[in-house]
Amino acid sequence: MLRTEKEMYSMLLQIAREDERIKAVYMNGSRTNKNVEKDIFQDYDVVYVVTDTKPFIDEKEWINKFGKIWFMQYPDEHPDYPSDKANFYGWLMQFEDGNRIDLHVESIKHAREHILDDKLCKILLDKDNILPNIPNSTDEDYYVKKPTKKQFLCTCTEFWWCLNNVAKGLWREEILYVQDMMNFCVRKQLEKILSWKIGIKTDFSVSVGKSSKYMYKWLEKEEYNAYLSTYAKGNTSDCWQSVFKMTNLFETEARYVAEQLGYEYDSKEENACMDFLNIVRDLPKDAKEIVKTHS
């Protein structure tokens, strides 16, 4: 049976109180964010501030105190990612009862220097008053920020320019490359434009969440569905359709953002890219050159 939030907090604090090496406990993440609806998948992002991280790392069995582990990850043991085990070390644990704890041990010095880095932070226990006073938890650091004129123009350029690579990949039928370019380069620029529109509508006072997962809350249903329709299947025909859905949506929303913020939208850039896309889409497989059409 899923342990309740009250039971989880009680356990987390009891373990800390009974271990003299643990000097303080704080949390961050979705459970400290009042604007996030609670559900069964919310994890507990917990940090134990300790006198020394090494004994916790070396004592492999101590994490069993938290419950029956279903499966887990040791993120700081991955050879390809940097880590600072002496100051910060973590265990990501999914338990058999459905709860998940992302637990870290942190040195006192590191906690004092970095606890204020994340405003979504709440101190649960401080045995010896070793931590600084912190303001109430807030997600304001994650609010959509108003773009400067340069940020807006560079985002537009990035969107239109990266479609050059998408078109090239589609002509070559390199679907994996195309999907990568569309979702990790082009799409990110479209997300920015949509988030700025949301910022304008909300006076830049909300967060759209990680991977823009909360955009649906502020976009009109038609707009959100138009965005969802830009995700492509694994064939060139569907990818081309998605490309033009993305360009149509980007143009509409970028013009709106530009108008609302008093910025100028570069129509020449858009027209040049659209001309290129249309040419490449119709380009035969035995083509020897790419020729710009002149009207």
Helix/strand structural class: alpha+beta
Reported CATH architecture of the largest domain: Up-down Bundle
Q: What is the CATH H-level superfamily of the largest domain?
A: Nucleotidyltransferases  domain 2
Strand/helix succession: HEEHEEEHEHHHHH
The total of beta strands comes to: 6
Would you kindly provide a written description of the structure presented here, covering whatever features stand out?
The chain is an alpha+beta fold. The protein has two domains: 5-139, Beta Polymerase, domain 2 (2-Layer Sandwich); 143-281, Up-down Bundle (Four Helix Bundle (Hemerythrin (Met), subunit A)), CATH 1.20.120. 43% of the residues lie in helices and 14% in strands. It is built from eight helices and six strands. The chain has a six-stranded mixed beta sheet with strand order 3-4-5-2-1-6. A hairpin with a 4-residue loop joins strand 4 (88-95) and strand 5 (100-107). The mean pLDDT is 95.
List descriptors.
295 residues, alpha+beta, Beta Polymerase, domain 2, Four Helix Bundle (Hemerythrin (Met), subunit A), 2 domains, 8 helices, 6 strands
